[in-house]
Amino acid sequence: MEFLSGQTTKEALELKELLAPERVGTEVKVNGFVHSIRAMGEVSFVVLRKREGLLQCVFEEGASALPVKSLRESQTVELFGLLEKDERAPHGIEVRVKGGEILTTPYAPLPLPIGKWKLNTSLEAKLDNRSIALRNVRERAKFRIQEGIVRGFREYLTSQQFTEIHTPKIGAKGAEGGSNIFKLDYFHRPAVLAQSPQFYKQMMVGVFDRVFETAPVFRAEKHNTKRHLNEYTSLDFEMGFIDSYVDIMEMETGFLQYTMKLLAAEYADELRILNVTLPNTEKIPMVRFDRAKELVSEKYDRRIRNPYDLEPEEEHLIGRYFKEECDADFVFVTHYPSKKRPFYAMDDPADERFTLSFDLLFGGLEVTTGGQRIHDYQMLREKIVRRGMSEEGMDMYLDTFKYGMPKHGGLGIGLERMTMKIVGEENVRETTLFPRDLSRLEP
After folding, report:
1. pLDDT for position 222
2. CA distance 165 to 214
3. Measured CA distances, 401 to 131, 194, 405, 412 (Å)
4. What is the four-CA torsion angle of 362, 364, 366, 370, rounded to 10 degrees?
5. Residues 304 and 297 sit within 8 Å (Cβ to Cβ)
6. Predicted local confidence at residue 7, as pLDDT
7. Quick check: 364 and 315 in contact, CB under 8 A?
8. Which of 177, 245, 394, 432 could cross-link with 372 by S-S, CB 3.0 to 4.6 Å?
9. How many angstroms from the chain centroid is the CA of residue 6?
10. pLDDT score recorded for residue 403
C-alpha cells in the first residue's frame, strides 16, 4: 500500500531555486513554455516562460541532442544543461542546453505576438483572445500586482484582528437600492445578484466585531466608460466599536501603507517590467466634500454645477489640486450629501444634510466608498421611512439592529480600479482578467 506525504520533489527547478548561488556551474533541469526563439547563426537563444518569469536557454550548434530547429513558440519543453551567470540574460542566469524533450506542441499558430515586450494591438483584440494575451509578460505582470493588492488587504486586516467571511451573491433584495440590479428567477421566486455584501458584513459585525471579504459584486449600470464594469471585485471590510468614521479611513491608510511596502519588497520584478512608481501613502489628506468643490472651483475657474455629487472632471481636478499642493497621490473626500448616500449611512449630527461618509480618490479617480453606518434600530427605520422605502425583504437585516449593535463603519474598494491606477492604465478592462460590460459575456 502506498501513502501520500504531501511532499513532492521535482527534478525540474523553478527560478527561485536556479537563483541560489550554489547552483551556478551545475547541471540543471528546467521546463516551461517556449516564449521566444532568436537565431544568431551558430547560437540560438530560446526564452522559456515560467510562472516566476523568463529564463534564457542557449543552444550552441552541435552541443544539444535536441535540435533547436525542432522548437517553436508555445510548445512546452523540458531541457537540461549547465547553469551559468550572464548579466545580459533575464535574472542574470542562463542554461547552456545539452538536451531535452518536447512535452506538448500547439495545433495552431498564436493569434497574438505574445513573445514581444509589448502587445501593440487593440484592447478588443486582447479581450477576444484573452487567455493567450495574458501570456504576454507585461500583461501577466498587471495581475501579479493585483494579486499583491489582495494579498496586502488580507494580510493587513488579519493582523488587525479581522475575520474573513464569505457572503451569498444571490439575495432577495439589493443592499444599495436603485435600479442597477441584475434580477433573476430563483426557483420561481424573484432574486437579485448582490450589489455589495453590505447587509451581511454589517450583520457579522455583531458576531466578530471586525470582518472582511474579497468577492465579486454586480451592478446593472448601462455605462460604457473606461472606469465602469458590470461585475467587479470588491475588497470590503466592516469594523465595530469605532470612535468615528475617521477610524475607517485610518484603517484603509494602514492597509495602503502595508500593501505598497509589500509590492516594493516582493513584486519588484513586476514593478520593473511595468515601469511602475508606487504612490505616496505616508500621509493622506482629507477634505470635506463641499470644501473640495470650492477649492477646485477657485483654483481652476470651474463653475460648481452639481452641489450633491462629484462629476468625473471634479474628481480629476481634486486629485490634481492635492498633488500640486501636497504632493499627495490619494485624498479622502468626506461628508457627502445625505441624498446621495444609501439609507444606512450615518448623517452628520452637526448638519444632517451631510453624512459621516467618504470616498478615497487615487490620482483623481474614486477607488473607495465608505463611512460610518447607522447602528440604532429606530434611527435606521426612521430613515427608511423618510426615503420612501419599504422594509420588505430586510427583516433579518433590521433584526440585527433590534437586538443591539455597536457603532460601526466600513468600506468597499474597487480592486480593478485600484490596480488600473497603480500600473498606469487608462481603461479598467486592462486590469480585469475577463471583463463583463454592456457588450461582453465572453470569454
Report:
1. 86
2. 9
3. 46, 21, 6, 21
4. 70
5. yes
6. 80
7. yes
8. 245
9. 31
10. 95
Q: How far, CA to CA in Å, does 48 sit from each of 4, 72, 99, 332?
A: 31, 11, 15, 44
**Along the chain (443 residues), what's the average pLDDT of each consecutive run of 10 residues?**
85 95 96 95 95 95 94 96 94 96 96 91 95 96 98 98 97 73 94 94 97 96 89 98 98 98 97 97 96 95 90 95 96 96 96 97 97 97 93 90 97 98 97 94 91
pLDDT of residue 8: 82
d(CA 23, CA 351): 68
Residue linked to cell 441584475: 182
- Compute CA 236 distance to the chain's CA centroid, rounded to the nearest angstrom: 12
CA distance 185 to 203: 26
Asked whether the whole model's pTM tops 0.85, one would answer: yes
Question: Any long-range contacts for 300-309 (C-beta under 8 Å, 24+ apart)?
Answer: 307/337, 308/337, 308/339, 308/340, 309/336, 309/337, 309/340
DSSP 339-350: GGS-TTBPEETT
Run of H or E including 362: strand 357-362
Q: What share of the chain is helix, strand, coil (3-state, %, to 5)?
A: 35, 30, 40
Query: How would you class 102 by CB atoms within 10 Å of its CB: exposed for 0-12, middle for 13-18, buried for 19 or more?
Result: middle
Cell numbers for 310? 462629484
